[in-house]
Amino acid sequence: MALKHSYLLGLIMSTAFAYACDEEDPNYIDSGSPIMGVTGGNTAGGNTAGGNTAGGLTAGGNTAGGLTAGGNTAGGNTAGGNTAGGLTAGGLTAGGNTAGGNMAGGNTAGGNMAGGNTAGGNTGDGGTDAGTPPRDGGGDSGPSTGSDGGPPVSSGGCTPAPTGTFQTRVVTGTGPGGNYTIHRPTTLGENGFVHPPIAWGNGLATVPGDYTETLNKLASNGFVVIANPGTGSDPQVVRQGLEWLLMQNSSGEYMGKLAVNCAGTIGYSMGGGAAVGAGAHPAVKAVVSIHGLQDAAENVKGPLLLTTSTGDSFVTKEAFVQPCYDRSRTQPTMMITHSPNGEVLLFGDHLEPLGGGGHDTEPAIAWLRLWLYGDQAQKAWFYGANCKACTTPWMMPARKNHSWD
Is 3.40.50.1820 the CATH classification of the domain at 168-400? Predict the structure, then answer.
């Protein structure tokens, strides 16, 4: 893990991290369905030849030596790459990953898509099984269902819960432009069950393969999860994946097997902020941001969970997570904080959610099950003075816009 992410330091410390998530696309909410084309993205000199196409993420790209000098710094994703100023100093600022940066023609449609993340296996073979065998999603694959496993009761649920967990599979080379990854139950629609569609947002400089265990745990709970391509996320690319998945309910393998009015968004770091921004989609009924950046929480269409840590020294609670919490005005919202994990990691606890998900996966799944399935067993995580998210290793819960007794 340390080797995998040691290259982050050169890239991220060269930026002011001025993305700050309060510069979301001002036209986003009223833009309808911003499904973009796949041309006009990262062209010659950027992420095409020698970039993220065949042989993509190669030397000079995002592999060894990547994201360093000659990678995504000067000479890398500069003019002709991920917009002028790209991911260099001044990168994740206006003209970088904000509106007008890696969105229109940037790292969404048209960016890091054509040819996509080949090396690393995120293109696949046009949507067939990616070589990951079906695995038993049971055991420790997330919170259990309620005692009766039946349909939701009281408020919050928008589709009946499953009675158990699912074996899962991974599908690559799918979604818009054939560049997304889906984690899903191996068999869809058993006994008439309909699956909530979930859109996942990657953190900066990470790809869906960095979250395989977490995404499989989500799928084992009955969710069909579409993860965006490329390294990083914005609300448009997360929403684009969700809209594509919703449209699959009309034909083909997914026909009639998706709960199209019971969707969720979830993501980590930059992808957490993107999940909040994409949470404005009318189909969304629950949103989770894991150690995420700030975005337009006032526009989310479903209950919002924000997780953070007192040991996260990069996307800090004070600068990013608390302001996002403060912006939520109407939807039930909870911010939960866990204590430092005691390990010495780059950026403190910020990288803990990578891989197995750390402290954050279980409450994230519990939140989605509570509000999408109406799974009342998951109330133990969030309701009352002695809730699970109120006790060690969690602390300082903040809750609003709902009765949490």
Answer: yes
